[in-house]
């Protein structure tokens, strides 16, 4: 593992008078997979949304590829996000969903964008579903289309916000398998998740968020087996 790709320093976010992120610092190296765990409301989504500027931080700095002053569009292109609800365009096929942004934003011609989209759909095991609409796909298939769509922008970092939480249990595995493959190929990823087994297996580092702070972080074997903080222990006792 090599250079720091994303350096988060003392990140703060308030909504009105309510502080939600209260000084988050985290340096993410190239190729690193970070698991973000914590109770509902601890700030996982807000952290991810601040990183690609779906939210504007209230304080602190995010240094990405050595620069702190990227414009929003660059950040959104370079830091891809996959949501809990897949947010596909309902009137577009799987292929069109994946090929759209590269045409609009990266100005690829349609044929090139669709060729690349087919490769990405193959990568997430959906070649035979390329011409279906989202409503004709299962939740797990839709989420894999959403992952292919994020990959199509060739982001340097991928953020996943509880990518399996909206899925029926029998569909979780196929999505985690895709995430596992991405992790193996050296993708830099931050994954907010309640899938502790996935974190244990795939994450290089796990951060436990509590009330807008990283209360504890460490390699998964350490954090899960010998957590230092009482609140981490309480949380793990509830979810494991
Ligand atoms: P998590 O993803 O860990 O469940 P969130 O980041 O979604 O946590 O939320 C953290 C806190 O911020 C919660 O108390 C939530 O109600 C609050 N919050 C999130 N988004 C907004 C918003 N747009 N306006 C006001 N409060 C918000
Ligand atoms: Mg959330």
TrEMBL record:
Residues 6-236 form the ABC transporter domain. One of its GO terms (molecular function) is ATP hydrolysis activity. PROSITE patterns: ABC_TRANSPORTER_1 (PS00211), ABC_TRANSPORTER_2 (PS50893). It is found in: Cell membrane. Keywords: Amino-acid transport, ATP-binding, Cell membrane, Membrane, Nucleotide-binding, Transport. GO terms for cellular component: plasma membrane. InterPro entries: AAA+_ATPase (IPR003593), ABC_ATPase_HisP-typ (IPR030679), ABC_transporter-like_ATP-bd (IPR003439), ABC_transporter-like_CS (IPR017871), MetN_ABC_transporter-like (IPR050086), P-loop_NTPase (IPR027417). Signal peptide: none annotated. SUPFAM superfamilies: P-loop containing nucleoside triphosphate hydrolases. It is a peripheral membrane protein. Pfam families: ABC_tran. SMART domains: AAA. Belongs to the ABC transporter superfamily. This is Polar amino acid transport system ATP-binding protein. It comes from Armatimonas rosea.
